[in-house]
């Protein structure tokens, strides 16, 4: 039987740079895990492509997916729905590949309940002022949305205890290196490796 892939969940407060870190990780050709493209009801930002950055859905379609149990997790975040397609995640894990989710904290909590042996990584900003800076300089959000996102972000940082690892996003490349190192270490964890050796010994 094929060994199942690892479910890697990257989460953290709004504006911490999860998207940037995730894109940087996947820009490296040696990255062996699969990115799960999320569904959302928010409008595409300039340059975003349907089926690449997100699957952009109407509220009606998204709610139908919730009803049909097609989402591993979903959350309403600053007025829009975001969710992870369950079939893609399950099939990819079954095929032995690692799946990488980049999601906000309410969703990560739901995934933790369903996949307790997933790998949960929390990305944090070096400071709160740095976080606000990043949200403001992204320049895509109105003042109200920025303030709302800061309030949400502070509450989100308090949810750190849900995670296995905390990675500071001081520099994107360094944060990516730390995440990759954590994934490598997780694959070497005795609890994950041992069943394979127990089987080998049974055959001998
Ligand atoms: P943005 O609108 O900036 O692309 O994303 C807003 C927030 O939604 C970010 O924190 C992002 O990580 C999160 N997000 C993206 N996809 C998903 C998803 O499938 N589920 C959940 N719960 N959050 C998501």
Automatic annotation (TrEMBL):
Compartments it resides in: Cytoplasm
Pfam families in the record: Guanylate_kin
Transmembrane parts of this sequence: none
The Guanylate kinase-like domain, residue ranges: 5-184
Keywords tagged on the record: ATP-binding, Cytoplasm, Kinase, Nucleotide-binding, Transferase
NCBIfam families assigned to the protein according to its UniProt record, in alphabetical order: guanyl_kin
Protein purpose: Essential for recycling GMP and indirectly, cGMP.
Name of the featured protein: Guanylate kinase
Organism field: Cytobacillus purgationiresistens
Gene, per the UniProt record: gmk
């Amino acid at each position: 039987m094929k060994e199942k892939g690892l479910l890697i969940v990257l989460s953290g407060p709004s504006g911490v740079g999860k998207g940037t870190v995730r894109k940087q990780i996947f820009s490296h050709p040696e990255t062996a895990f699969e990115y799960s493209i999320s569904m959302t009801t928010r409008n595409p930002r300039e340059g975003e492509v349907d089926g690449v950055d997100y699957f952009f859905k109407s509220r009606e379609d998204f709610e139908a997916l919730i009803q049909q149990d097609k989402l591993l997790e979903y959350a309403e975040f600053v007025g829009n729905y975001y969710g992870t397609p369950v079939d893609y995640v399950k099939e990819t894990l079954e095929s032995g590949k690692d799946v990488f989710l980049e999601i906000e904290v309410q969703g990560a909590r739901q995934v933790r309940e369903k996949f307790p042996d997933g790998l949960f990584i929390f990305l944090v900003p070096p400071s709160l002022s740095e976080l606000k800076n990043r949200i403001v300089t992204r320049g895509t959000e109105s003042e109200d949305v920025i303030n709302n996102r800061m309030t949400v972000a502070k509450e989100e940082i308090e949810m750190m205890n849900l995670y296995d690892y905390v990675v500071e996003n001081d520099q994107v490349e360094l944060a990516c290196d730390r995440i990759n190192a954590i994934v490598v270490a997780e694959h070497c964890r005795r609890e994950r490796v041992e069943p394979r050796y127990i089987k080998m010994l049974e055959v001998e």
